[in-house]
Amino acid sequence: MPTLPKQSSSIRPSSQNSVPAPSRSTLASSPIPSRDRNAALQIASRLLGEAAHDLRSPLFAVRESASLLSDGYLGPTTDQQLSCLQGIIEQCQEMDQLVGDMLAIEQVQSGMPKMHRRWLNLAEIQSQVQRTVSHVIAQRQLTLTWDRPDGIPKVFADPGKIGRLLLNLVGNAVRVLPAGGQILIRNKFLSDQGVLQLQVIDQGPGIAPENLERFAERGESGTAGTGLGLVISRQLAALHFSPLEMTSRVGKGTCVGFQIPAAGPASVADAWLRWRARFIHAASVSTGLRIDPPELPRPWQRKSPSHLSQTAQPENHVALQHDGPPPRNPGQAAAVCVRLGGAVASEVAERLDLLLQADMQNFELGYRAAQREWILLLDATSSQAKTRLANLQDRIQRELPSARIRLSNGLQLQLAGNTARASLRDLFVRSSLNVSSELSTEISRDSLSEIPAGEDCTIPQQRLEAELRRLAIRSSRHKENLIDQAKALRLVQ
Q1: How many Cα atoms occupy the beta-carbon half-sphere of 413 within 13 Å?
Q2: Mean of pLDDT over the chain
Q3: 114: pLDDT strictly greater than 90
Q4: Strand partners, 259
Q5: Are 245 and 321 in contact (CB under 8 A)?
Q6: Segment 320-324 mean pLDDT
Q7: 67, 77, 289, 294 — which has fewest CB within 10 A?
Q8: CB-count burial class (<10 Å; 0-12, 13-18, 19+) for 405
């Protein structure tokens, strides 16, 4: 049997001059440059998007064929066959959700998330989520409870994406709960910030501190499977100007929440500005793990005295921020007003709203302040904003030739300054009340049709009265809180 020749000593590398090969642990811990990481993310998201589009058609065919067999259209089936067909349909539904997550990741990573934010009632989101998860909740013998405090305000969100975010969070809770478990979706209006806080709370096994820290660093999921649910959830929360807050206690449960604007135009401006400010000094923003933060929201079930006497496990908290490329211009943005001529049909206004919001990129906002007026907050310098607006006008003329629009001169905002918040709040509130502001010095390429003077003269008064009513309700709530605090102080004394 032939043998390999022995290695000659003349070609054997010297131990003094040889360079040791890096170990696997060294390679794994080596930092990856942010530029290479962003490029890899873009390639991965593009591949995910292409694969997702290719999977949609065959997946639909398999699911519909199984449904035809299950419904008996192609002949009778036995109980065993029916059980197998139901399993196929359920797995197809799981795959369809996975494909949706892949497409959502591709949209966010491409920088064009195609948002359509608007003011809506929370009941609209609730019915969408409840209708989708009712079958799974009943099948696993779980209970889904919605907290319904009085006086829930309207929220500013994309109904499809905020519904998908809640579905992902509820789905994560469903996977870890045994039969008989309960899930609570709690909402709380934070008047000092003008936001509605939504939280999905379960009483599952909880998440260990090291796992929470890994979620923040790598965007992994806490459940078995692909791990895309948590990755896309943090991105969907970021598209609503909020981190994804996770609080967990091992053996007790997990609470995952986010915030959305819910106090009128000024709250939208504040939420967007707070979100953009995170990227000005990104190094100082903590996204890691902290032990023993503010307490986990109280469970909705009464605890027994024996449970209260036990030693409490430490709570672990992590804030999952936007995971992707930062803004092109972290410290500045351009604000532009868009107005549509009054002689144009309302159908054109709706189509223009879809076009403007779909044109917004990550870290940008298209806000419909009135029926025919929009505010665009662009991640752009003055020169970049001019190019964007020229391209936008060309696109509108191609797709909506009957639309007659006016664009204001761009207002450059220095987001790190103290005047940015006041300028944005003034712009949003004035535009929503249909009152001209300094920003609305309009320019146009065409001679535009005007609304006859006085035609909409009652609209500003109606909106002003609505804003005053909202402020009166908010003042009343503050008064009640102060009275309660005064009573508590007297009891302590």
Answers
A1: 27
A2: 75
A3: no
A4: 197
A5: no
A6: 78
A7: 294
A8: buried
* Coil/strand/helix, residue 188: strand
What percentage of the chain has pLDDT greater than the value 70?
68
Distances (CA, A) of 237 to 89, 128, 163, 198, 306: 30, 18, 11, 11, 38
How far is the C-alpha of 300 from the C-alpha of 370, rounded, in Å? 40
- Dihedral over alpha carbons 31, 34, 36, 42 (to 10 degrees): 130
Q: Shortest CA distance to 183 belongs to which of 164, 166, 207? A: 166
- The three-point CA angle 145-299-481 to 5° equals 95
Q: Which residues pair with 200 in a beta bridge?
A: 185, 256
Q: What are phi and psi of 120, to 5 degrees?
A: -150, 160
CA 201 – CA 204 distance, rounded (Å): 9
Q: In this structure, what DSSP letter does residue 444 have? A: -
How far apart (Å, rounded) are the C-alpha atoms in residues 196 and 259? Answer: 6
All residues at 6 or more sequence positions from 74 whose CB lies less than 8 Å from its CB, including other chains: 68
Q: Whose structure tokens read 């591949």?
A: 47
214-256 residue pLDDT tens: 776 654 544 443 456 677 888 889 999 999 999 988 888 999 9
Shortest CA distance to 376 belongs to which of 392, 354, 360, 362?
Answer: 360
SS (H, E, C) 269-300: HHHHHHHHHCCCCHHHCCCCEEECCCCCCCCC
Does position 267 have pLDDT exceeding 80, yes or no? yes
| CA 410 – CA 439 distance, rounded (Å) | 8
**CA–CA separation, 153 and 148 (whole Å):** 12
Distance CA 195, CA 190 (A): 5
Which pTM does this prediction carry?
Answer: 0.68
The angle formed by the CA atoms of residues 134, 155 and 466, to the nearest 5 degrees, is: 135
- Residue type present at position 179: A
Smallest CA-to-CA distance from 190 within 282, 94, 260, 293 is with 260
The beta strands (E) that lie in 300-364 are given as: 316-320, 332-340
Residues 6+ away with beta carbon under 8 Å from 461: none
Q: Which of 279, 425, 445, 288 is nearest to 363 (CA)?
A: 279
- Is 88 within 8 Å of 96 (Cβ atoms)? no
Confidence at 435, pLDDT banded by 50, 70, 90? very low
pLDDT band at 293 (very low <50, low <70, confident <90, very high): very low
CA-to-CA distance for 156 and 365, rounded, in angstroms?
Answer: 12
> CA dist 78 to 62, 75, 82, 320, 445, Å?
20, 10, 6, 48, 70
Q: Tell me how far apart the alpha carbons of residues 367 and 388 are, in angstroms, rounded to a whole number.
A: 17
